[in-house]
Amino acid sequence: MFQGFYIESSNHSGAEHLTNDLNDALQAIKVISGVENVVMIQKDGLPVASAGVWFSKEEVFAIAASTCAIFGVAKLIHGDFKYLLMESETSKIFLASLPNDPDYFLAITTAPRVNLAALFIEMKDSLSRISFLLKQHLDGRLPPLRSYNMDETQQVLSRFAVVPGSQATYSISRSIISLNRSQALALRTILRQVHDSIPDIESVFLALSGGVRVSLEAFANDRLAAMSFALYDASERVTRTLRNISLQTVLCETERTRHVIYSVPNGVFSLWVDRNSQKLGLMRLLLKHYIEETRRILETASMMKPAIPDDLKELLMSGGSTESLLLTRRDP
Questions:
Q1: pLDDT of residue 271
Q2: pLDDT on residue 190
Q3: 247 domain-assigned
Q4: Residue 18 maps to which CATH number?
Q5: Using DSSP, how many helices (H) and how many strands (E) does the chain show?
Q6: SS3 call for 33
Q7: Which of 140, 164, 185 represents a domain boundary (last residue)?
Q8: Would strands 249-253 and 257-264 be described as parallel, antiparallel, or unpaired?
Q9: DSSP H or E stretch at residue 209
Q10: Please, is 44 exposed, middle or buried when counting C-beta atoms within 10 Å of its C-beta (0-12, 13-18, 19+)?
Q11: Contact 17, 3 (CB under 8 A)
């Protein structure tokens, strides 16, 4: 079983005692019905301990590095978030913050039909126990980071190949979604209906490819839209790496806010709502129809490549000196 880089580098009896206590606490979560794996991770991506069916340290490192990126984005959006849930057809991946300890979090993989309410209740004591152990033994000290060069990183990623020896290909799409007036109005109508049917909504919007945003008049936070898209994109990469399957939804909860992100063609549907305004199950039932209708409309939208004007392209590609550039400005 993976023991953690910090614990491996420590030879005194206190570290060994911490190892055993952490393993016992993680194992208590592992035995909850539906839980497959549990990894405790430092906020900068260093895995500390794990329980489950992992085969090597490299695999633990891969899940730690991937979920660390999500943890970082979630912290930027929700500084006090309690947990984040990524859902696909075949599994759920759950990130849980530790009580009063911002330096560590847990990554938990579960079966697709796990009872989330039961999971939250049963793991509550274990989370508190882990926080107590870290405070008691480490007292704020963080273990040294482990670095990986490019070859080592590729070796780690190759272990997650669905077919042995297959090569993964990564590409960047620069297409921009193009909506006509009818499609844009239909999408805004859906957002208005969502806003009117679910109480205490803080914001609801669509963040689409190319930076296109569809929202109601009161919402004008482009940073929030971009960060929601980034949070979903990072979560999608984790489910692709671990399960080779598309992500369906991301749910992030804080003390007072519930943030739900749904996958839609060429973008995401993002909803912020008061955490205590409505039961999660009922809200999902209400959203189901609106998400399906949103997907139907976006599937008919066209995509286009951003074009660079010929005169600008010629200027950028020319080898002339900077003296030939003409700068313009607006007089005050």
A1: 92
A2: 94
A3: yes
A4: 3.30.450.30
A5: 9, 12
A6: coil
A7: 140
A8: antiparallel
A9: none
A10: middle
A11: no
Structure tokens at 178: 């193009």
115, 274, 305, 331 from 38: Cα distances, Å = 16, 29, 42, 61
CB atoms within 10 A of CB 135: 13
Residue 323 maps to a domain: no
Domain contains 163: no
Does residue 215 share a domain with residue 94? no
Which residues, 6 or more positions from 141, have their beta carbon under 8 angstroms from its beta carbon?
none
Q: Are residues 12 and 131 in the same domain?
A: yes
DSSP 104-164: EEEEEEE-TT--HHHHHHHHHHHHHHHHHHHHHHTTT--PPP----HHHHHHHHHTT-SST
Give 266's contacts (C-beta < 8 A, 6+ positions apart): 175, 177, 208, 209, 298, 301, 303
312 versus 269: the higher-pLDDT residue is: 269
- Domain membership of residue 283 (yes or no) is yes
Looking at the fold, whether 20 and 74 belong to one and the same domain comes out as: yes
Can you tell me the distance from the alpha carbon of 35 to that of 112, in angstroms, rounded to the nearest whole number? 10
Per-residue pLDDT tens digits for 224-266: 788 888 888 888 877 777 766 778 899 988 888 899 999 999 8
How many angstroms separate the Cα of 247 from the Cα of each of 53, 154, 244?
Answer: 22, 23, 10
Name the strand (E) or helix (H) holding 318: none
Selection from 285, 235, 283, 224 nearest residue 263 by Cα: 235
Judge whether residue 294 has pLDDT over 90.
Answer: yes
Please provide residue 38's backbone torsions phi and psi, each rounded to the nearest 5 degrees.
-135, 130
Q: List phi, psi (to 5°) of 251.
A: -125, 125
Of residues 284, 253, 286, 258, the one with CA closest to residue 271: 258
Domain count, the chain: 2
The listed range with the strongest mean pLDDT (23-32, 153-162, 163-172) is: 23-32
Q: Do 222 and 300 sit in the same domain of this protein?
A: yes
- Distance, in Å, from the CA atom of 110 to the CA atom of 91, rounded to the nearest integer, reads 6
CA atoms lying within 13 Å on the CB side of residue 70: 30
Domain boundaries, position 185: 176-304
- Whether 42 and 130 map to the same domain: the answer is yes
